[in-house]
Protein 1
Amino acid sequence: MTVLDHLELSRRSLLKGGGGLVLYFSISPGRLAAQEGEPTPAPPAAAPSPPKLPGSLSDFPFLDSWIRIDNDESITVFTGKAELGQGIRTALSQIAAEQLKVDFSRIRLLTADTAQTPDEGYTAASHSMEKSGTAILHAGAYLRRMMIGLAAEELGVAAGDLKVEDGAVVSSAGERRSYGQLVSGRSLHVTVNDQTGFFEPGNYTVMGQPVPRVDIPGKVTGEPSYVHDLRLKGMVHARIVRPPKRGMRLSDLDTSRIDDMPGVIRVVRDGNYLGVIAEGEFQAIQAMQALQRAAQWEGGASLPSDTDIYDHLMKLPADTSVINGPETAVSPPDGAKIVEATYTRPYQMHGSIGPSCAVGLFQNGQLTIWSHTQGVYPDRAAIAEMVGMDERAVRLIHVEGAGCYGHNGADDAAADAALLARALPDRPVRIQWMRDHEHQWEPYGSAMVVRARGSVSGSGDISSWNYEVWSNPHTTRPGPAGNLLPAQLISASFEPEAPTNIPQPAGGADRNAVPEYSIPNARVVEHFISEMPLRTSALRSLGAYTNVFALESFMDELALAAGADPVEFRLARLEDPRARDVVTTVAKAFDWTGWEQRPGRGRGFAYARYKNLAAYCAVAIEVDVDGATGRIRLGRAVAACDSGQAVNPDGIRNQIEGGLVQSASWTLFEQVRFDAEGVHSADWAGYPIMRFPSVPETVEVHVVDRPGEPFLGTGEASQGPAAAAIANAVADAIGVRIRDLPLQPERVRAAMQA
Amino acid sequence: MITLNVNGSTFDTETAPETPLLYVLRNEMELNGAKFGCGLGQCGACTVLADGRPIFSCLTPIAMLAGREITTLEGLGSIDSPGPVQKAFMDEQAAQCGYCIPGMIMRAHALLLQNSAPDETTIREALEPSLCRCGTHMRILRAVHRASEGFQQQTSAAGEASQ
Amino acid sequence: MKVLYGLAIALIVLAAAAVAYAVSPRALEAVERPDPQSFDKAAVAHGERLALIGNCAECHTAERGGAYAGGRPIPTPLGTIYSTNITPDPETGIGTWSQEAFRRAMYEGLDREGQHLYPAFPYHHFTKVMPDDVDALYAYLMTREPVRNEPPENELRFPFNLRPLLAGWKLLYLDNERFAGLSDADEKVNRGAYLVQGLGHCGGCHTPRNALQAEKQDEFLRGEVTEGWYAPAIAGDVPAAVKWNEAQLADYLAGRWLEEHGVALGAMAPVAHNLSRVPDEDVAAISAYIVSLMEGDKLEADAEITGAVGEPPDSGDIGAVIYAGACAVCHEASPSPSATGLPLAYSTSLRIPTPLNLVRIVEEGVKPPEGQPGRYMPGFAGALTEDQMVALATYLRGQFTGLEPWADVDDVVARRMRNESGTKAGTAEAE
């Protein structure tokens, strides 16, 4: 018996069905044991084992880690990746349907669950298609060929006389064997060691199509779709109280008034950890408010302020390394035009619209957590360590949350659920953070500084390039318990792990810091600062947002010094034909050469290949700047993206367009405000983001499809180019370069008056 | 006891009168459409309609709603029979994570009830109270334009029928 | 209405008497738009500071329109006036205006062609402004981006649509004299008085007006309804819970939040936004002068706050229930500085003679400028019925001020909530 067997979903959730959630409960655990039966012989055409399997097959080479076919013909596909609103549930199902040649609607996809799916780590770094997509592609193709081989054996015909249609192998004589029949009594626990079997891209009917997202109908009609919508029988509601600022100690607390409040079940206190559980959700909120007033805090870390943060950061000890080019700075040649620039980006937040949420149940020594974490396995390890339990007694099940855009409060809320559920065994405990918890306690995207010094010689060549970046860590995700905020607050507290940087070529702080352009002796230096005045971690695109903003701004500054057109200046240094294609596609669609300037209006261009190894993306945008107020209005935006083989072109457009608009919000408006007293950006009024009146007039996205080419991660491709394109357009409009983000009206006005 | 009228049906609740509607909808009536986003009326994720006008259900005590007509996302249609605005959002694939979308749909529906042919600026202003973090704005705008076409057809069909 | 027509007839008679004065003022010659480079940079910068103090952009910029390009509707009890385009566009703006023409507009209320301007353009205040300052303002405006925009025709009722009548109005109310200085005040207060009475034209909103829309000089800054908001008395007995001091008022004027007074709202919000961008010394001067006009004892700063979250409200009082469920979360228990509402015991809106501002704030909310952090309150339009709004207003006034209930609360709520579309309801109340 498992925890789940004891659970009953509330009547309504079950009856409604249709949404994504029910899936999670309709499959009993224990799948990891191989299906019973004889091992299946490898397909006839199996190639010798290649040295390294593609995508996540390299870690999980067995077919049954990815696909299961039952006697009733149901097809279940497993992924360790999680749906985060990026649409991978749909895209991965498309891949499986295509390779297995079954109708799209027959694919049932199970996402991250420590009891059921492979450990694919975090759903992050735009890796889902590259890793899980590639694994499912090969596993699906392998399985289909295996089915043909088995059918050939059973029917006594040559494999060449067989074809596959909707989950069955059919002979030229019309004899038919379904996958369910073929697989019956056999094990799929075999290594996927053949990478040759997938269909020719030219024959695809599901991949490459804008298949509508499977989750959208439920989401727009109110079906249970999120962990927030989970309603387990007997479930109670919890809220937490965090210290007013980091490092404060709970010095005094009188709970007598709270204990007597209507609906209150229990106040949970463990060291500096504080929460309350009540029968009703609003009762829990009212008790939380009373608890906030009752709690006395003392001590706490003193913070620098948002006005002097860059100086502060640059004075902290840094791990400095030259990641590209010569060890020592390159001097500009005599007579060259020298350009120097310092770019800054403040702390910015993920700002999920739905505050983090989790449900925990502690029963019979088993702890089950439903969470919108990006990594069920690492989170399980961290939570097990925090509560001192064996990992095997802890199960993490991913249920979708509101968009997270990286390491936000999800893991910490899962840890809250663990602590609160342990304090109240046998009842499911739902914890949802309040808005201020999310704003003040999520790990932010790091404040960063870039200093660039370069030169162009008389002929317009870039004759020197020195680029230095200062940054806090971009990944402090759990794995170790100390990276969970609640684990730092409990009396048996855990220290956060010393942060490490992500090495090149992907990079963390230095992601996209190395120019892709042909620039001789381009020197790039990274200063990795471990000490965090504010807690930082992965925010969508990590260092790439700042680096592309800085690098592509600097390219425009050099182009200006060289008297060159920004697009020409880039193309002259871009060798990769696929890079050139996205650049020229955007320039043409935007009508870069025919565009006419008028007062207060400017245009900007930028390009980057995410991580220098994932999707290619270029953006052009026009802006109007109001001279009196400094307000920037975004006009027409054009983007192009090459993601390799496009599995779902509409999904790619959605990601690029969304990334562009999100980046526009970061770039125009966003900055975490803080001073010695603490973080003041505690809600949307203290941390304003883009609202409808400010979004671009239009956004058009061109997908450059590359049939047969490997999938390239796309989810974080447009943030950097969008920021730089906007900054370049503003510089074009007002004739002055603004190098500090965000491009707020006061800053623009000040620049115009300087 | 307070009697609420939600999506055409009545619902009796013993919950304290100052309790915001959101918690009664979600936890007592088990309706998922309205979401908690901020509890401060800043993001619009909790938007439902009261007598056809959008309200923040996270800040509206149930005592204010007795005897009034409340409409939630579920009142506009279902997964098998979506309403015109819901259908338009599906057709335009106007969602990424989708958490803000119910509020957007409610606000768009309220706008179209007032003005079945709103221009782009009017739509943007009507949706201003609702935040989206995924950057789905352009699709949401397209979906509302598309829904307005449906509304206009319905309106004209209704007009013809009545003649 | 009868009264208005009576006055109109009186005006016509007056106008006739003033014929000699009124005979078509001469047009001034159109000039080539001066080269922006020809203006002294310091004068342009000074002009910008003055334009901010004068709040010029607010009236002369339409919603979503170009800065200073005009076309914003200004509702008045006599009809709607559309602001003019004061960018240097030669055809639709003031591109062909000489400095002399600009001065004459500021001092005499005449456009370049000699047409009378309505005193919605407050030249009766601008007469106080020194010529150098007027010239700096000219330099600033003539160096703006020209925007081609023809504002709509005014929509004024007969006979107010007859511009020549304005000659009579000017004869009665226009005193073309520069600021003479206050004899009994220091330099700072004098500077403040110059700015308040002149460019700042604070009386334009805060001074009660007579039926001909002229400010009553004997009730200077004693409170008036303008453009749908009640601009409270800022001289004499002011309706604040806590006594203002110079530093507080300067902060308030610069758009900052004060624990005892809140933040500038309604029609005052853009004024404060502009003042946040002028030098501190100007704001301090304005503050010093205004505070010098205030009288009367006020509450100490530690006024007791009543009500508490978690205490069940009296469920028989719907106003109390609404406050507990909708208001208290921010006005008493907010964990976020930007969502923290004023403790209502400090609210000026609860202490003014009309519930108008309260109703508007509850309906429309409070929003900082787009994309900028600041205090926020959601609007509750659509959430409250008229009866609930009356109950809430009555509860708040009684609970937090102890003042007499508003006698006209039903009436004000009904008029506001049945005509939310614009500010016209407010102007009706002005009559």
Protein 2
Amino acid sequence: MSTPEPEKNEAADAAKPATAAPKPQPDRPPRDWGVIIRNVFTAENGAMVTFLAIVLALVVGALMIVLSSTDTMNKLGYFFASPGDFLSSAWNDISSAYSSLFKGAIFDPATISGTPEQFFGPISNTLEYATPLIFGGLAISVAFRAGMFNIGGQGQLIVGAIFASYVGFSWTALPGALHMIVAVLAGIVGGMLYGGIVGWLKAKRGAHEVIVTIMLNYVALLFLGGWLLNTSVFHNPAAAGQAISKPASSSAVLPHLFGDQLFTDIGLLFAIAATFAVAWFFKRSKLGFEVRAVGLRPSAARTAGINVSRVQIASMLISGALMGLIGVTQTLGLANPNNNSLSPNIDAGLGFSAITVALLGRTKPWGVVGASLLFGALQAGGALMQTQAQVSIEIITVIQALIVIFVAAPQLVKEIFHLRAHKIDTGQGGDEATPTVDPFHTTETINVAGGEE
Amino acid sequence: MSTASTATGNVPTTNVAAVAADTRSKMISGVVMAVVGALALWGFGLSSRVSNGAHTQFGLKYDPTQTGGLGPISAPAQEVALALTSLAVLCGLVRAFAPISKKVQLWLDGVYFASLVVAFLVWAAAGSSVGLNVPSIIVLTAAGAVPLILGSLSGLMCERSGVVNIAIEGQFLFGAFAAVITASSTGSLWAGAIAGCLGGALMCALLAVFANRYLIEQVVLGVVLNLLASGVTGFLYDRVMSTNGGTYNQAKGFSAIKIPGLSSIPIIGELFNQNIIFYLAYVLVPVMWFLLFRTRWGLRTRAVGEHPTAADTVGIKVIGLRYRNVITAGLLSGLGGVWLTLGLASAFGKDMSSGKGYIALAALIVGRWSPIGAFGAAVLFGFATELQVALSSLNTPIPGAYLAMAPYLVTIFVVAAMGGLTRPPAASGKPYIKG
């Protein structure tokens, strides 16, 4: 989209006489701080765009909070008679909502003198909410780098949760930690199988993965909520009339990470390990290299001797396995509200949030972690905002969707904030930023390339 | 769609190989059909449910308490089930091994599905004293298909002009929400219906702008827009409707319009005693077909969806046409949302479209991007989802969840069986960049 070519050429042209002439250009200042600072505010600067996208999304969220507050809108009726009433009421709405969002996500100033548990409580909530998002974002990234959209996170995590839950409540003969490990592995296998179906249908039958994954989501959802939870194997006899499974035995439950008072379990460690593994996978492994090659241009990859079908199946297996881990933390982790049992809404929309996380993190493993922390913080803060400021937690979904839309459309952010399209050439050379890898543009290349087949 | 091109890589591109693959796929799917038919023969025809001379009753009056009219038909369950399932097996075998034309193949598929479905119904209702109320099933199916038809027509308009619309679900939600809140606060159903359509159009306008101007990958964009719609409507529901339900969220609906003459036909008469949105949805199918395949607009739309560069060369304004079509399509999916609330006389609930937008998308794909095909698939899916209501009283061993899964499984089967042989409009999902 953005073409830095002409400027590069100019730079090259400028550089040529410079090398020919014995004296390096004296009229150009060696370092212009003004220019450097102005260069921060360009559409090329991914971090800046992300920051502005978050700001924009929060502004839209604030507008929605005000517009939906009946008290405040009533004051708008006599705005011209007494504008202060409306403005202060609107400010009250926004500040109470966003301050409780902050208190719920980062820390509450009132707890500085409190116990460490109180002080670190919000942060540990954020970490707990971020954990499944990390798995999901990585899962989407792995599939995406192979040129596939895994919209089926919902289904894969449900199957993973079913497997983990079954092992959790029925294989109680396994001793202590082994029980937990087996339950976690079962969840991974469940998600992996369900994801593998998609990869297989895509590779062998040419079935489009977006359609297959969407359909499999509903199959899993109906299987779990409509049937499985009512069977005698799964249904908890103690909860008559409710579609809830038997609770997992305590030996399968993921233990607390930072002590019993803080709301973070060792799922976070799994997530960090998974991030390292995926980063290694992309950077160092043969399969990871093949995945990236297939994602960039399948026809070229095939010509180069890469078995495209195998790579597609493998990447969907890995993606499904990571989604299965969400199922594990949702059932066996502290995030489970029902005493570690399975319920029809076990997925909590995480399969779809995962897509937003992956895109915000630009499908890079550590970018995903950053995005997960942000969205985890929004979730954790949103819960407090709902109880303290009576602002529905649904606003968090809106803010997340908006952030992703704005990040995906840097052009829009540029137009709103009048950012420059390109950096000003300082003639320093060497520090010319490579355009950020934008997942959307990657696919565009794939389409263009594939369209010629 | 967007990455469909990567899939085509797996399908042999040369002509001979394509024909061979076609024959092979025809044989495999025929054999699969025969095997499924044989399983049905065993499961429905030979089960204990239909043995010992059990009979199945089919009621032919919409309101069974009404006097006069057609009496119920009672059929010997086992014989009928066996005959129908054998017919299905035969269809599968003929389809697999006989050299038949595409047209005959299509008919065979129709007979196959119909006989399996009727065999299933005979089996399910065997021995029940109430039996199945045929007119009621027909009406439920037709009503269940309405949002699917509207949604798939919306998706059709978008994809035919080269924009993927995964966000039908979000347009339903937004349309339903806008319809209810407007109808409740103004007291006018028509104002609500118009607001609902405009709500859908607004969501589609977002899709059009971000897809055409800001070039966001369209599948991702659709998913994110669905999240956005779910979040916005859920938020406003919590903030405005849940406390002031009486003011903002009343369950009101269009009243039925009886078409004289047609509504007194036995069995299907009730189809002509429905509300205006119902009729509109069914009228729109042939209208859309005509517009798309018989008018200048349709030709241009298809050109833009298949080969935008060529269309641009002959002077068609590609981006402009895409904007117009996508936003107009939003009116249709918005109307689907209106149906969910004002059409069914129900109040708004969070995420009330519950996946119907995605089933509409599936109908579009199974119907191979044609209005008539999408209509057929929508009716089939409407039947599958509504059947569980009709069967809930019969106490069948098959849980309703499995019936509800049917549309999704059928879609997976179809895309897997047809794979690369069925394809969306070539430019669907690809932004057009002039120059």
